[in-house]
Amino acid sequence: MAISMAAFSLAFVGWLNESWLYLFESPIWLNRYTEYAIILAFGLWRIRAEQNPYTRKRLIILVTVVTGFWWLIPWLMPMFEPYAGYVWSQPVFPALHTPGTLTFFLTLLLVFLFGRRIICGFGCPCVGVRETVGFPFRRFSLRGDWAWRLRHTKWFFFIWYVGVMVATQFPPNAWTATLVGMFALVVGLTYFGTFFITPITGNRFYCRYLCPFGATFGLLNHAGFFGIKMDPEQCIDCRRCEQACDMGIPVWQQGKTTGEVTSIEDCMGCARCIISCPTDALEIRDVRNLFRPNLRQDAGHLLKRKSQIPAPRTEPAHRPAAVRLSDWNQAEKVLSTKDLQRQAERCLDCGVPGCRNACPLGNFIPDWLEAAARGDWKKAGDLAHATSPLPEVCGRICPQHRLCEGACTRTQLEGAVTIGAIERTLAERALDEGWRPIKPAQHNGRKVTIIGAGPAGLSCAERLNRMGVEVTVYDRSTKIGGLLQTGVPAFKLDKTLLARRQTLLEQAGIRFSLGLSVDAAMLSDLLGQNDAIFLGLGAQKPRTIELPGQTLPGVEQALSWLKRINAGEREPLTGQQLLVLGGGDTAMDCARAALRLGAEVTVAYRGPEARLRASPKEITLAREEGAQFLFNHAPLECKGSGGVTGVRFETHEGATIIEANRVILALGQQADPPPGWPHSTL
């Protein structure tokens, strides 16, 4: 990008040198050919760097035509514009400059037949500069409703040029267009301003808002045979077409609404939208379709690619259920590096990335998937940690089916990208290859205390520390993690990961004060010693319902039971009937933990199977390991006298009793601030 900006500056100076030739004495090495040589060099570089065969072919034509036209202009000018040096002579239109007139109408005929503003896309010097020197800045293109509406400003210049042509009886060119009034000043401020300062305004600014020739060709797009069609049934709403369009045309929006792109007066025919479509939903149509009605110029046709069988979604395999039940290790195997990269390559890099928009952290998912596909694990780790302080944890326990993977457009094809498995592995690989959090060079003088070392507290601490704030984290537990430490079983999250993360955070400068309960008095003291206090108290209080008998021996809340399990208090339950009430991930954790202790487990849920909140992956694992499920069972009471003997349920068939020796209530959690904390002090 820096090289491109330097080239733009030098090219601009070269133009000034030529324009002010009569006012300043300039060195011989800095002239219009210096400018042309710079642009030619960038054109050759772009052609060599371009991966897409169709775009490379178009670039070759564009650079060849533009270079030939510019370098030969002193010799071509007399042929095409014989009155260029004698503007005071009365031209006779069109008899005395037939070559220029024929060229003009030949161009119009080509556009009428094939459309695409063909000169814009394949022969315009402005486009040549933007496609070569200015390509790194194309992501700065203005987009949005107002940017799209302002495109109509080019009709002012169109009307001016038509007026000049009528008044002078000469095709509009640099000489005739500046004859009337102060139009030279307008050209100087608009054309050359947007032509060379375009990195600030984004790609195609001149083409979109100012070019009168483009407006002329755009009218012929409508009058001729040109069109872009969309098959809405093939579209998967990835919106890559809109991301690829430098002219800002809402291709997806118009195509889904009408089945075609209606704003073709702005289409330059670069075909980026067509070749970016992963499902061949878009196609270009022109005069050839009159003679070959079945011709479909979609991405497959333009790229001459053979039909390929897309890579299917591949998830990590599970260890055999019998083996899993004998230990507390992770159930999933790790995908091979080759499989991970193949899965990462499946990302479509959507124009509007649903995965990122669905992620509460706004993770740069398409970016780190691209890095992972290349095998650049350190870069992928940098991108993952830019928004997530615990990617190795998120990759394991985040409900991807409801968030990133649920929003992946690949779900409409052969299955979503396995984002969770890739995130987990790239975090591990990045750490193995030396990634470490950056320790701030110095603190900015601010101090913040964080109460609670759970996910929220750790996230806040990591982000503040990165900004140079002095951070201290307090927690009543002797280990960090909060519910990650006490409420998630080891077979789902290895606790050594949390210990490693604590070490990394301490190395980055964060201090931990663990095993210390903060009461109201201490809270007030801390408030006076810090610029701010963050309360990351978590949700460790069980939600309760009106359920008679829930105080019977043998009935226990899920969190307290899992806490004992994670502390190593694993009471054998061989031969016992254990009933789990609930349908979320915590209920699955309880069921799978009880199965490892030898119990016969049944999960009872008040709603239908389709409304289970648990991850489909966790449900599958629980079933493989032997858990039974009851749906549409609403608990009415726990039965028993000296201990629980069963639970009475309301079902569609009426009341029924399910026998059980143990009952685990996994009905959700809520926040539980310590008593005596006065809100007025916070």
TrEMBL record:
Protein name per its UniProtKB record: Glutamate synthase, beta subunit protein
InterPro entries: 4Fe4S_Fe-S-bd, 4Fe4S_Fe_S_CS, DPD_II, FAD/NAD-bd_sf, FAD/NAD-binding_dom, Helical_ferredxn
Pfam families: Fer4_20, Fer4_5, Fer4_9, Pyr_redox_2
Transmembrane segments: 31-47, 59-77, 97-115, 155-171, 177-197, 209-228
Keyword entries, A-Z: Iron, Iron-sulfur, Membrane, Metal-binding, Oxidoreductase, Transmembrane, Transmembrane helix
Annotated EC: 1.4.1.13
Residue ranges of every copy of the 4Fe-4S ferredoxin-type domain listed in the record: 226-255, 257-287, 338-369
Enzyme class: oxidoreductase
Single GO MF descriptor: glutamate synthase (NADPH) activity
